[in-house]
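TA notes. Do not distribute before section.
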Amino acid sequence: MIDFVKTRYSQDLLDETDGVKIHKHNSWILIRASGTEPIVRIIIDSDSYDEACELQKEINNHISQLS
């Protein structure tokens, strides 16, 4: 999944320090595997609630393509 995200968002600024963090305008999305559970966490931060919701929809759509 991480490789898919890195490829899909290769035009954006990516930080791989702790998972994959995608910087978009005044927002970011962090996708990382849990260190204690068999899950992937997605954390979104934005100045705007609407922008955060759009980013959530966008990343969910991309990840659902993997199933």
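Switch to the second chain here.
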Amino acid sequence: MVECGAASTRMRWLLVSIWICFLFRGWFYASLFPLWEGYDEFAHFGVVRAIARGILLPPRDQAGPRDVEESLKLAPVPWEVRGWDVFRSSLTEEAYWGLSPEERRQREARLRDMPPGWQREDSVSGVSAYEALQPPLYYWLMAPALYALKGSGLLAQVMVLRWIGVAIASLAVPLTFRIALTVTGRESVALGCSAVVAVMPGFATNVARVGNEPLAILLFTLLIWLGLRILNRAPDAGSAASLGAVLGLGLLTKAYFLTAVPAVVLLLFYKYRRDWVTALTTSVITVAIAGWWYVRNVVTTGTFSGLAESVMLRDRSMADMLAAVPRIPWAHAVDVILFSHLYFCGWSSLTVRSWMYRVFFAIAILAALGLIVQLRRPAVFWLASIYGFFWLGQLYNVWLQYLTKGLAGSMGWYMYAVVPPK
């Protein structure tokens, strides 16, 4: 393996160019997308607003802000969410653009000129910041920015948080270069991997919204890179401590970091099986950073992850839940995950022709077959374990979705958290 940072000057400039192109593309998307087009965007924004108002840990039933509630009545919403209770007073994009120009102008004016005091008031009709069930790190980091923008209107606040999210997620592009260079030792391949990440259509649309995905993507990519550094060096307590810190921060950002825990355990066993003190230190750092959140979940919800679906199922017997496994159409569920990973544009659920997805499915299968012969290499095994355990987490979520909603599928855009191994 090649030490990261050994890239030539020319390659570094090319990498910076790719990085900048992704940044501007992401900022363009963030500016272009309609208000609340991103998945659960208004609820994520509501959590940030609550923390900016001084509620350090908003409860799971935290009410949404009043200006957000009003915006859902004034701005158009995607067709796919028209049946939700929270959107019962909303107009779809189609209905909105069927209004007269004068009525649209009136709505836009009311949206821009909402009273500033509504930012500090709760909704009056039950709009919820339901993403308060998520770990709090992203919302804590965004709250100071929103506090600094308290004199601005809702639209400006949403736009700035979107831009910040794109900037955070963009760091995955140079990190992917370092990961690929470490694994392959070839600058051209590493640059190509970074370019693929930068042009992925679903990646940019996923991070160009208010939500915790950008931070989760950055931390997962950093975790993967640190694991490779540990494999590529002599046992180093500092690197192991960094790995534990990043895993802890990840667990404090998104519950799907639980899938990284078994991969990290395997890595520590491989590298530090004769140095259990270092391995234990890594674990202690992780628990010290994030353990309190999962203990809080157990105390407040009776579940470890705190996921809404887990809370809904906490009183069902395991035997009853396992009985549903054979009934789940797993092939369809995997198909849904891959579809929504490759390109599934926001809550409007925009897609392209299905045959286009199948072409990329075939390419991915061929690439996976080519990696089988490389699994004996520790670096490749590390990447495969990260990716494999994340897939197990996705299938677990399929199980939860089926049991609670009767849906066979999971959120494929989550897969961008482990984009480098692909």
